[in-house]
Amino acid sequence: MNDIQSLIAQMTLEEKAALCTGASAWTSTPVERLGIPEMTVSDGPHGVRRVEDVHSLAMQSLPATCFPTASALASTWDADLLREMGTALAEEAIALNVDVLLGPGNNMKRSPLGGRNFEYFSEDPYLAGELAVGLIDGIQSKGIGTSLKHFAANNQEFQRFSINAEVDERTLREIYLPAFEKAVKKAKPWTVMCAYNKLNDEYCSENHYLLTDILKKEWGFEGLVVSDWGAVHDRVAALKAGLDWEMPGPQDWRVKSVVKAVRAGELDEAILDESVRCILGVVFKAQQTPKGGTFDVEAHHELARRVASEGMVLLKNNGLLPLKDHQHIAVIGRAAESAHFQGGGSSHINPTRVAVPFKELQAQAGNAELTYAEGYPVDNTFSQELIDQAVTLAHAADVAVLYIALPSYKESEGYDRTDLDLTEQQVALIQAVAKVQPKTVVVLNNGAPVAMSAWIDNVTAILEAWMMGQAGGAAITDVLFGKVNPSGKLAETYPLKLSDTPAYLNWPGAAGEVRYGEGLFIGYRYYDAKGIPVLFPFGYGLSYTTFAYSNPKVSATRFKDVDGLTVTVDVTNTGKVAGKEIVQVYVHDHKSELVRPEKELKGFTKVELEPGETKTVSIQLDFSAFAYYHPKYKQWITEDGEFDLLIAASATDIRHTLTVTLESSLCLPCLLDKESTIREWTVDPRGSVVITPILQKMGETSRQTFGGDGGSEGMGMDIMEMFLDMPLLSVLLFQQSTLPVPADEMVDGLLTKVHDKN
Ligand code: BGC
User: Fold this and answer.
1) Are 351 and 392 in contact (CB under 8 A)?
2) Is residue 711 pLDDT above 70, yes or no?
3) 580 CB under 6 A from ligand 1?
4) Nearest ligand 1 atom, CA 103
5) Strand pairing partners for 40?
6) How would residue 510 be classed by pLDDT, with cut points 50, 70 and 90?
7) Is the pTM higher than 0.90?
8) Which residues contact 503 (CB under 8 A, 6 or more apart)?
9) Residue nearest to atom 6 of ligand 1 (CA)
């Protein structure tokens, strides 16, 4: 630390300004005379995309293991597995001379149309936060840095460089920030990458509230904030907002603008020094990990295979899977020969090798006879001929396995999806094959939900294999033949149709703005609130075995929020094969001042069980499991009252409900003011003491004035009910003739009383 301070003292203004912008697309600016080395960063997130020459604009990257993308990782619900994968990523970064890996991405899946959803974990901030912590921990445990991205509200590709995301404070705090907050606080990523877009009228790169007030001050982030590539508009404004490092470089004029601003007294040099301090902290930390050597290509490929199989989600199975050998399997679909295992854009990895699904099937199929038909063309043309060939093959076989990959023109970084559909040819292919072959399995490769209503009832089994990484072809086979019992569960809801989705009316925005009009209600929070049926719920996934839940318990039925609770439940494998179950705990608040989602995920665990085996799983719930963000108090609050703890196998498969009573430890400030309504006065404990006698008196007066009993039926309405949502002052103004003092004086007097009691 002292060394860094003394280095800063020795640096010229020009050197400091230069350090705050990259020297190339992937490297920081070294200062040789002071021994400040260069630092190299690379994408990320599910593999190391180390371009051969980091100082050139060449795009060709060195071979590295392509692990499954975030949608698949999230479906494992296994932070420990992600930790393990993180260590492998770090080993590759070390071998490839990379100091910081640009990932993970941790934006929320606001709409299934988001082109980059394959790179993000979930629609749920709790799950996304836990998984990001696992991955970051794993990578950083080996001395390689991470870059948590894209901070924040970068939830679409449409106009991603400029769109203004309008998000209200509570929605930001409860939905779009918590996964970042958890990762920053628990895993301490070395760097955070700010998003391209604007958030509430300011570019994230110039957003002081986001980068300094929240990230650095509130959450205590100690690393450096890097811009997304090309996200800086005004370098000086960005520095003032807390954006330490601009990428990519070189940007000589930016450096000059910083020097000029300091000299002109427009930028306090202390601000520049602070960014230099943050950058040097990471540059020197990176130095502590010697680079070079090799990595174990084979072992990492095997790990990628295991991760892929853990993330695959069995969506439907009418008893056909696992497949048996000794039969004729028609393998249909281009994706069987040409594996679709990653998405397009900055995360695109040059894999060390690729498991071809068809070959992997051949390798494990024993005595089965395999035949292959392409099924659909590489482009968006329609070919009846390919469908006819596939039908002939399927008809002659005992089983048809269709490998269907969503083409990259429909899903990639850089553009959003316009629908949830497979291609017309793919839908026609599935329908035609299923017509002649009653035993049809569909294996899907995609990064986000697709609509299935046109064909789901015609097929026997569906395996969601995601963008499964380079070893995914083998992982599919492992699952199809039962070598691996599928245990993945969805980290995002599969809607029935696009118009059912939460952001449908506010997507993707226009005239430079996108309004997050659905507020807190994304994913299952929305479907719950509106009672909209879905294709597959959040948290859903089948297994080749079954699980029973019994003996649910909670550590206390009445508890203090700060003490939290422990929920336990026995899970038994009631089937014939070993398997893993993901147990979820959602919390439902009976009553709250502000509207809350019907239920929210607040804990989960994955448990492995032999047939007949029972294990007790235990899930901790802390203060945050019960709290919500109150924009008026500007903090997370709890309220006294009852909560249901829902022990569930998915968001719609609730196995047990336990009811507990929470006692809040908070002593919240009184928020009553001149505009507060009668209802607000009565709800506030201090307000109700002073307002109750006044209300009683008002009741009597209105009875005398308007007649009626207890209300004021003389006007055909209950006057007291009407008063409830009027400001106290306005109500008193109607009663002025009966008051001893002017109405405002009276309200001022009452306000003094309640605020004195704070
Ligand atoms: C992407 C980032 C990526 C960066 C560097 C940007 O366009 O949004 O996720 O890390 O490029 O490739």
Assistant:
1) no
2) no
3) no
4) 10
5) 27
6) very high
7) yes
8) 110, 111, 516, 517, 518, 522
9) 229
